[in-house]
Amino acid sequence: MEKSPEPRLNLRRDLGWKKKLKVIVNSMKNIVNAFVPSGKIIHLVDQKLPGLLGNFPGPFEEEMKGIAAVTEIPLGKIILFNIFYEFFTICTSIITEDKEGHLLHGRNLDFGVFLGWNINNDTWVITEELKPLTVNLDFQRNNKTLFRATTFAGYVGMLTGFKPGLFSVTLNERFSIDGGFMGVMEWILGKKDAQWVGFIIRSVLENSTSYEETKNILTKTKILAPAYFILGGNQSGEGCVITRDRKQSLDIYELDPKHGRWYVVQTNYDRWKNPFFLDDRRTPAKMCLNQTTQENISFATIYDVLSTKPILNKLTVYTVLIDVTKGQFETYLRDCPDPCIGCCYME
């Protein structure tokens, strides 16, 4: 039997994304050099990271090489661009179920904290440079859609996506002492028994055929960085937050509409702990959903929830809304006009 071809990614080369990718890679280089002015870190990136290729599972190695060739950006910096997402993604994800058992999945992706503040226009540098790199992708096999995703041109993993009719999945970073830096260092030093979080999301989108299969993989697979996997299905009750450390699952929090739990909300803090007081997006999200009520949940009302400050903030790159059953998928680039502070849900 002939092996099925790899999913084909159609990304037109005339969209200007190559120049935009060069801009953000240069910004990342400047940020690294600001911490280590000698330039030794970037030298190591250019000289050493390409040698790690061959340790990445396919097709990621080939894609990163192709991106480097097309953009004429050194391969080491392309690998660095892909590694950055293991550490700096701060997000809010929501799954809801209406009275008829219909599921909706929404998320804000926030990225760029600590990666440079522009005092001239009060924005995070990397956040603003990511917006023009944001793309909706249609992955195809044999000319048929396999899955759809929102990602950044040049990044070969996935953080947000869905398989029409089957399931949706988003990734939120989880802060931990035994975090992504430790996992990446172990991987570089030769311990290759764990997967990159962005790569495992892409893998399940490509290969999993059901909500339960995906849930099992995301629960049990060793990963390089602690994470929250937010997973939605196509049947009543098929929605959960999987809280992971690098080696095992710590908690699976599921929809339970029969007992009144018609939504789950995940930011970047374990649900059994209080969020950091300067970054409480969980409380306003739950308050907004409760005020909306299960009867009125829709794309429009979830968008409103995700547009409430501080759920929407200066780090927010995009908002995505997903309806797995209907195959609907909407992505919005976001801005948070000043004053982008406070909690307008309390005003």
Automatic annotation (TrEMBL):
Catalytic reaction equation(s):
an N-acylsphing-4-enine + H2O = sphing-4-enine + a fatty acid
* Main subcellular localisation: other
Which GO biological process annotations does it have?
Answer: fatty acid metabolic process; sphingolipid metabolic process
Pfam families, sorted: CBAH
User: Which GO CC terms are listed, alphabetically?
Assistant: extracellular region; lysosome; membrane
Catalytic residue positions: C91 (nucleophile)
Q: Which residues cross the membrane?
A: none
* Residue span(s) of domain Choloylglycine hydrolase/NAAA C-terminal: 91-332
Gene3D superfamilies (alphabetical): Penicillin V Acylase, Chain A
Which pathway, metabolic or otherwise, does it act in? Lipid metabolism; sphingolipid metabolism; Sphingolipid metabolism
EC code(s) of this entry: 3.5.1.23
The alphabetical list of record keywords is: Disulfide bond, Glycoprotein, Hydrolase, Lipid metabolism, Lysosome, Secreted, Signal, Sphingolipid metabolism
Among CDD domains, the record links this protein to: Ntn_AC_NAAA
Compartments it resides in: Lysosome; Secreted
Give the family, as the similarity comment puts it: Belongs to the acid ceramidase family.
PANTHER family, sorted: ACID AMIDASE (PTHR28583), ACID CERAMIDASE (PTHR28583:SF1)
State whether it acts alone or in a complex, and with which partners, per the record.
Answer: Heterodimer.
Identify this protein by name: Acid ceramidase
What lineage is this protein's organism placed in?
Answer: Eukaryota, Metazoa, Chordata, Craniata, Vertebrata
